[in-house]
Amino acid sequence: MKAVGMELSLTEEEMEYARKFLKREPNPLEWAMIDAEWSEHCSYKSSKPVLKLLPTRGRRVLLGPGYDSGVIDIGDGYVATAHIESHNHPSAIDPYGGAATGIGGVIRDILCMGTRPIALLDSLRFGSIEESEHSRWLFKYVVRGIADYGNCTGIPTVAGEVEFDESFEKNCLVDVVCLGVGRKKGLVLAKASDPGDIVILVGGSTGRDGIHGVTFASKVLTERSEEDRSAVQIPDPFTKKLIIEATLEAVSTGYVHGLKDLGGGGLTCGISEMADKGERGIEIDLSRIHLREEDMVPTEVMISESQERMVFIVEDGKEREVCKIFDKYEIPYAIIGRVIRDRNVVVTQNRKEIANLPTRFLANAPIIPRRENKLRIKKAKHKFEMPKDLSATLLRLLSSPNIASKEWVFRQYDHEVGVRTVVKPGQGDAAVLKLPNGKFAAIKVDGNSKYCYLDPYQGGASCVSEACRNVVAVGAEPAAMLDHCQFGDPNNGEVFWAFSQTVRGIADACRSFSLPCIGGKVSFYNEDKETGKAIKPSPVIVVLGLIDNINHITTAGLKNEGDAIVIVGSTGLDIGGSEYYRTLGIYDGSPPSIDLDLEKKTMKAVLECIKRGYVSSCHDCSSGGLAVAIAEMCIIGDLGARISLDKVPAERLRVDELLFSESNSRFIISTDKPEKTLKIFKRYGLPSAKIGEVSAGPLEFSSKRTSLSCSLQDMKEAYGEAIKKLVEG
Amino acid sequence: MYLVEIVIENKPRARDPEGETIKKDLMYKSGYDCVKEVRTGKLLRVKIEAEDEEDARQRVFKMCNDLRIFNPVAHSCKIEIRGKV
Amino acid sequence: MKVAVVQFPGSNCDYDAVHVLKDIIKVDTELVWHKEFDDSDYDAAVLPGGFSYGDHLRAGVIAAYSPAMRRVREMAEEGKPVLGICNGFQILVESGLLPGALLRNSCLKFVCKWVTMRVESTSSAFTNKYRKGSTIRMPIAHNEGRYFVEEDVLKGLRDKHQILLRYVGENPNGSLDDIAGICNAERNVVGLMPHPERASEKILGGGDGRTMFESMLEWVR
Lengths: 729, 85, 221
Known about the structure:
The complex is a heterotrimer of chains A (729), B (85) and C (221).
Chain A: H1 12-22, H2 28-37, H3 40-43, H4 48-51, E1 61-63, E2 70-75, E3 78-86, H5 88-93, H6 95-111, E4 116-126, H7 133-153, E5 157-164, E6 173-183, E7 198-203, H8 213-217, H9 237-251, E8 256-261, H10 266-278, E9 281-285, H11 298-303, E10 309-314, H12 319-328, E11 333-340, E12 344-349, E13 352-358, H13 359-363, H14 390-398, H15 407-410, E14 421-423, E15 431-434, E16 440-447, H16 449-454, H17 456-473, E17 477-486, H18 493-512, E18 517-523, E19 527-528, E20 533-534, E21 538-547, E22 564-568, H19 579-583, H20 596-611, E23 615-620, H21 625-637, E24 640-644, H22 655-660, E25 667-671, H23 674-683, E26 688-695, E27 699-702, E28 707-710, H24 712-728
Parallel strand pairs in A: 4-5, 9-12, 17-18, 24-27
Antiparallel strand pairs in A: 1-2, 2-3, 3-6, 4-6, 7-10, 7-11, 8-10, 9-11, 12-13, 14-15, 15-16, 16-21, 17-21, 19-20, 22-25, 22-26, 23-25, 24-26, 27-28
Helix pairs in contact in A: 2-10, 6-7, 6-9, 7-9, 9-12, 17-18, 17-20, 20-23, 21-24
Chain B: E1 2-10, H1 17-27, E2 41-48, H2 53-66, E3 75-84
Antiparallel strand pairs in B: 1-2, 1-3
Chain C: E1 2-7, H1 14-24, E2 28-33, E3 44-47, H2 68-77, E4 82-85, H3 87-94, E5 101-103, E6 111-119, E7 135-142, E8 146-148, H4 151-159, E9 163-167, E10 179-183, E11 189-192, H5 210-220
Parallel strand pairs in C: 1-2, 1-3, 3-4, 4-11
Antiparallel strand pairs in C: 5-8, 6-7, 6-9, 9-10, 10-11
């Protein structure tokens, strides 16, 4: 039996469970509230059991997953908060508004811990921009949406990544990350624990935006989606900026006991989750809420996803003090209810009770057990002749959208506002920001759907490793991570198997690196209903690192002619899923294997070299292999290099395989102390060698059998102009 | 040749934060509280070759949809013929 | 000496300016909410960058009607140094305290990058400590930075050396005559699109911006 006039996405089993628990039939409003809160997006009903595998403890961790943001202690009475959000489905039909409101959402999660958002990152996935006009359109407008919103709110977008693959053609992925800082004693949690405390709804008015937004995210995109008019959310970064300042000012009064942003599932999810965390209840009166459209029914009010709204739980008697601040910034607000002792979520209108559900029941959806079917991908071996002109191959790789410079993107992002950004986009492997206590944070986001498609376990572990390597390369100790797992329909056994394998890979890597997971998300249903084609498994990993000493900050561009170039790590035939193979039209093979112990040792060794002051520049090897890594160092530093391929520690490989294989656990370092550097690597038992030196001239690779050379000019043009040419013609 | 005006606005039911700010922070604060609502939009004034007014309208309509001059998910698009040129 | 950094709804670079003035230049600085910018005696004012009122309708136009601008106009008439950075420049131009207009960048996109400029005149409240003709570097970050003014007014600006900074090497936004920063006829009100507060610490990319604030101290002396 379905509620009148509403389409619910609850299954029959879930509805039976609800009836049994409540010992009655919920009324239509209550059904709508349950539907919103139990959507996959809000409840994680499929993924909770698998996510339990992730390690969440660490010496710096104050709050792990389960809150709006993870929190780590950065010393001296300060904390850092971090969260990742996505807006995949809205961005697929309204790239500008979807991406912009995605940024709005992730900012709120940081803000409601009482911390100031200080940086944003974006991780985007689209279909081929070389072949698809649609994907070019999505790419352009997603970037503009992120730019307009982030810039207007004055939060720098400091790093990111973009991946292109056909599987994202109909299901683009838009992930956004926010980093915040604040004082430990100013931390606010999203819980309502003191009965009598006042509940205040602050921010934009409540309208019909996004109705069925979460259930929209939890359903697969169909033809009708383009017309799904109420699911579109209008971005309003100006109001958000005012809310940021007002919230931080309110928090500093000390009277704010709880804070929660209203995102997916609107008011329903917001208050039920706060009540559940505080082990209390909340009673609200809908007639007090400031509405945008007068004729809204209670159901619409409870599940509306109008943007820029937050719920404040304020100490009883101190509402005036706090509301004065909202008046200063001219932000609308309404006192809508109280925290109550009974553990129920009670909704009234004009003094009549219209919904009453137990907090615990509402906020905790029954877990759905899912089937797992292993998917086997053929690991074919490919035989083809090595291209004659390897210089041309390198240039082609440099201009390949997955590798090419993303300058076209980051020039649109204000990455300097806040005067904290020390290592800016395009300069190093991760962004580095000043922290208020004189230390520095490094942060990067990484994913690789091609590896995860070929082997979800290895792929998941590789993504964590790459993100960690990027943070290590700028001189930071990895301290915490966030993960966002994006997959197709969890009812599909193969998809769910890939999900659980990926999480296992991520968990093992985190455990090996002693890297706690402080938060994350899972998004299912990223597939095209008509074709049944799911996206490639796309875990996105954020690693946050810390740097104590300003002298450790390292960038990737080559610095001085005459410096030695050293590689640490051995190169093997890890070419499945590589960008090189992709440019040849080969999409299978074995993805790079990973030895977690080796990876860990390598990162430790590189950090030691950096801390001892031996390293002038550092860059990890990933997409495009060591050839692209060294080319990038040349381009950024505006210098050349002479490399002897025969010196590279490697298995027996053909020259192209040596150049473009994407083996894990490798770094390229330029140094004026090669002997000392190599000694450190030897001590750790790692394969390493001096393979060349920095020159003024072109980039030259030579071996006994072949050689290739690319001029700086050619490389800069291939690398620097590729994306612009594709997008702007 | 015909002169056609294309006006693209946010859908009537969708918020228009820019219009709201202009009304509230500029007009009201400067004494123009007689203004009750402001909606913003984009105007394209197009000169197009066509057989007649109906043909002009059809061509512009098709173009707006094909080239995504407006996003039907978020915007409304009004086409007005302003006569022959 | 006391400097006011005026904060409008939507200002973003306000804390940045306060940080540089207080912690690096070491001058007594206050962040003042626009509705409260009235009484106290300030010796100089800075209108910071950002997106006041979301840049709605036109960047800077709504803030130009803020009651705070009356006080800023008075300070300008008293000969006190007034600096408009980026959005601050847009507000000064919309208020009529500086001539011209700032239009959408020719490339139609927001641009965030470091640019090189030449110091054309050291005769102003904010450029007096630079060396005339020297090149300096600062970052820009804007969508509407294309300076435009009518031909006859431009001639006046040129003749009276009111063009303080010009972009060299590359004009990032299509500004007329490569204009990056200008001053009023009395030379105490200065507006520029690049951000000197982001170029005041070596670790963030360079220190050429510091000199602008040091010039302000010199002017007041």
